[in-house]
Amino acid sequence: MSEIFKPEVDRRTLLRRAAAVGLLATPAVSMLSACVGSGGDKDDNTDKPAGAVSATNPLGIKEDAPLEVVIFNGGLGTKYATDVHIPSYKKLFPKSEVAFSQTEEIATVVQPRFTAGNPPDMINNSGSKLMDQGALVQAGQVQDLTELYAAPSLDISGKTVKDTLIPGTVEQGSFNGKPYVLNYAFTVFGLWYSGKLFKDNGWTAPTTWADFTALLEKMKGKGITPFGYAGANAPYYMYTVILTSAAKIGGADVLKNIDNLEDGAWTSDAVKQAAAAWAEVGAKYSNKAFLGLKHTEVQLQQNQYKVGLYPSGSWLENEQAKDTPAGFDYQLMPIPSVTAADKLPVTALYAAAGEQYFVASKGKNPKGGMEYLRHMLSKAGAIGFTQLTKTLTVVAGATDGMEISPGLTSGNKALGAAGADTFSFRFDTWYKKLDDELRAATNELFYQGGTADKFVTRMQKAADAIKKDPSIEKFTR
Amino acid sequence: MKHGRYPFIIGFLIVPVAIYATFVVAAYLQAFQLSFTNWRGFSPDVEYIGFDNFVKLFHDNTFWQAIRHNLFLLLFLPLFAIVIALFFSFLLNMGGGTRGGRTHGVRGSGFYKVVFFFPQLLALALVAVIFARVYSPDLSGLINGLLHQVGAGPVLFLADENLAMWSILAVLVWQAVGFYVVLFSAGMGSIPTEIYEAAALDGATRGTLFFKVTLPLLWNTLQVAWVYLGIAAFDAFALVNIMSVDRGGPDGATTVIGLEIVRNAFDYAQFGYASAMGVVLFFLTITFAALTLRVTRRESIEL
Amino acid sequence: MTNLMSSDSTVTPPGTKAGPRHTTEAGRAKREIKVFSGFAHIALAIWGLTVVAPLIWVVFASFKSNTEIFTHAPFSLPSQISFESYKTAWTEAHVGRYFLNSVFVVTLSTAGTMLFGSMAAYVLARYKFFGNRFIYYMFVSGLAFPVFLALVPLFLILQNLGLLNTFTGLILVYIAYSLPFTVFFMTAFFKTLPNHIAEAAIVDGASHTRLFFQVMLPMAKSGLVSITIFNIVGQWNQYLLPVAIMQGQGAEQKWVLTQGIANISVSAGYQANWAALFAALTLSILPMIIVYAFFQRQIQSGLTAGATK
């Protein structure tokens, strides 16, 4: 092999020749541009299958048109689709062929299909590799769901689909006022703890910041890590906590300003105070090693009574079902008030519809996709989902009277106590880049000795950069 | 001799060129084209924006950070892997006794070579999954579990911004060394024994033998190794993507260009921008390759 | 080399005064060798352990429960041998099928790469014709392209050809993306082959094609072997390309091993089922090591041939 490596060209020739290859090949480019644009002409819905509108078929779908759904395979699994929603759809339209596929990498699998102009009809856009939903909407690839929400519910008689939903659901999935996305799972977000651990030690859920830090101190004394989240893949949980505190301090408009990329939204006092309070918790009451852990690993430690409080959404109990010891008793507490002068009461909660499902407007069967969502939003569909995933849906009261788990009960109770004081933010789905920046900034603030000032300046800079970027469409609420 | 020459040339080239043009050249031309657009990956319309992406790139700190990490790997992966592999192949081939004026390998050198080669058998994605567990900062991690046994630790390999890149590098080295031990051993085995005998008679120590005889004669093999490893350094994407904290973190401490391209293309749906990154990477690579060829050639002239 | 020549000339002829001194020196040398080889063994053993420990640890952990993995010492024996995790790995991760898929794809694609790669390289190395350099640099410039960039265009191309989610498509793509490296090295290699044999064959009336297959290819064997090994390793490792190409309805049937492992790694994370992940890892490591144990002599001598040509 010794001679193999004798190069017979010098660098200059190599570069020159390589450049020549590039130039000579340019004519081919114009040919190729046709390739990117290949999905182009199917914009209008004229060639989409449609059928007669009837009471059982309010959207007027073509009964034998095939339907393709892609479900993200993550914490919720995919059984709810294969065992509940697809059978429900097939029952009403037995002649329709429903193709189902699942993936852990939504973007890798589905994105090229949008580019190529043959997307699946209904997509569950979720997971760590989800597609930029804002960009999809911007590109006109997402079906407007107005028609679906106006249609009658599948099994709740006398109501339109919209009437059956928890208020705010439609808005949560709207981009510049138009409903494009169904956020199906309803999530309450707060700090989770073991009812058993608290009972054994005589602890109670604190409401003020002083009580909160006192409790953290006691946990520390017991050799328990008082508070922590997984930095490796779930800083999202922690920034939801910080922003919840910010909203409690300065009111829900703090989050609205952030979403709308207002000038100085991040550098406001409320965000700064919240960041400072949580930075202190990170420095004093956590374990830097968690920065290297994944969410299930921290959650497992909590199940082993090694972690006191853990920020998460109401999906937590289901996710940990297998590793939760008997009697652990998951309980949720709202995030304690940082100051006595907080604008919102301590019971206020981050609660929102999450888990995105949307219909491809340029797919082969957009009406069928919407019909599929109608089945998801039926009472039976919602009950099936909650039974399989221990997660509530946006269908209001669908599971009333059902036997549900302690964690869900506790979440429901907190939601009741919050009343109208629930809020959420949207920027994470609108601007994925801002979400990523916030993840990194949160890790820095909490685990890497960052300061509140640095945190807010950094985020403001990132938000300003997005605001200035003409290639990114802006959304407001 | 002339007859059938062109039919033969065309016959031999047509299939490889067709495959290559269809799947590689066409794909890359499209990527070059996209680097001048603000295409977001979903829309069929393509809008040209000139060199805007490249200007933006120039001011993108994360991108420069990624470039620095790529250079870090490009320098240290070949360096460490080659030095360690040379050291072990030296021990394996010349660490034993001298018989009849010839230095022998240590006993069991065959066994060591087989074992050392194991990591090469595993796909990098698999290695990444294994080492994500090995490095885990809690007790479930191999290293921290052992450290805990002796009352030390935990070391936050991937979570410590100063250690993370080195931890990634260590995995790449771990995987590469075995292959090069075998390669260098083969090279050493092929050096005529008379040369060693002569030098040994001259009273040369083992070290002198290694530096004055073995190394110069292995020079060409070393060059090949350097190029292989340079290419392997770009595979770091698989490791970073699977192992690192917060994908390329903490706070960008491990990000590489490959990851930035994938993130911008698939996460932020900025295909135009991501393509521009790829184009810059292309020119960097070509420059590096040309430089390497140039430098190594000059040094090998002495042989 | 010059160094060596000059020292050669000053070697003391054996016999004369060197005799008695030689023996004492030999004794010291023997001791030195013992110390040295002891040290060598320690160093080699340490690296051997570094290589093997993570692999053994994976096997150990595959038999443990989550709690044991997270609370017990890394090399503690599992409290009970449970094959539950292997059942999960086999049925959910389909390690066996993905392994065979990988073998199938890599066998064909490496064979194709070597055939087409050396055909092109041979012509480019030994024949002068219009466009030769252009084609050569077109191939070589591919070495500098980052594969990530090609993913979306590649998807479109495959889709237009109806090759998406097919083994044929995947194999062709593997071949295409291995060509730059193969052509680059094989061209250099064919250039080094001596001319007189080829000339003699042509005088004997051999056709160009016969010359290639019956004379030149056997002569290039050592180069072929080492590039083949490099291609096998590279294609076996591929992760990005199959993820982008093997997707859609029923794609799980056709996944290659890397995809399968990445998949179970993600779902193990979501379901916190680490033992199943370790079992899947074990199942994919073991066959490789067994195959290697059988063929290590051939593989090593292949590398040897390549390195010493």
Q: Residue ranges of chain C: pLDDT <50 for 5 or more in a row?
A: 1-21
Q: Biggest sheet of chain C, open or closed, and with what strands and sense?
A: none
Shape of chain A: globular
- Poorly predicted regions of chain A: 1-46
Task: Please render the helix and strand layout as text.
The complex is a heterotrimer of chains A (477), B (303) and C (309).
Chain A: H1 11-24, H2 27-36, E1 67-72, H3 79-92, E2 98-103, H4 106-116, E3 122-125, H5 133-138, H6 146-150, H7 169-172, E4 174-175, E5 178-179, E6 182-194, H8 195-201, H9 209-221, E7 225-227, H10 235-250, H11 253-259, H12 269-285, H13 295-303, E8 307-313, H14 316-319, E9 330-333, E10 349-359, H15 366-376, H16 379-389, E11 392-393, H17 406-418, E12 422-423, H18 427-430, H19 432-447, H20 452-468
Parallel strand pairs in A: 1-2, 1-3, 7-8, 10-12
Antiparallel strand pairs in A: 3-10, 4-5, 6-8, 6-9, 6-10, 6-11
Chain B: H1 5-34, H2 52-58, H3 61-94, E1 98-99, E2 102-103, H4 109-117, H5 124-134, H6 142-149, H7 164-189, H8 193-201, H9 206-234, H10 236-243, H11 257-267, H12 271-300
Antiparallel strand pairs in B: 1-2
Helix pairs in contact in B: 1-12, 2-12, 3-7, 3-9, 4-7, 5-10, 7-9, 7-10, 9-12, 11-12
Chain C: H1 2-9, H2 18-62, H3 66-71, H4 84-93, H5 95-126, H6 132-141, H7 147-161, H8 167-192, H9 195-203, H10 208-219, H11 221-237, H12 240-245, H13 257-271, H14 274-308
Helix pairs in contact in C: 2-14, 4-14, 5-8, 5-11, 5-13, 6-8, 8-11, 9-10, 11-14, 13-14
Entry summary:
The complex is a heterotrimer of chains A (about 475), B (about 300) and C (about 300). Chain B is an all-alpha fold and about 300 residues long.
Summarize this structure as a short list of keywords or feature phrases.
heterotrimer, B: 303 residues, mainly alpha, 12 helices, 1% strand, disordered C terminus, C: 309 residues, flat
Description:
- The complex is a heterotrimer of chains A (477), B (303) and C (309).
- In chain A, 44% of the residues lie in helices and 13% in strands.
- Chain A is of the alpha/beta class and 477 residues long.
- Chain B is 70% helix and 1% strand.
- Chain B is built from 12 helices and 2 strands, in the order H-H-H-E-E-H-H-H-H-H-H-H-H-H.
- Chain B has a two-stranded antiparallel ribbon.
- The two termini of chain B are 37 Å apart.
- Chain C is mainly alpha-helical and 309 residues long.
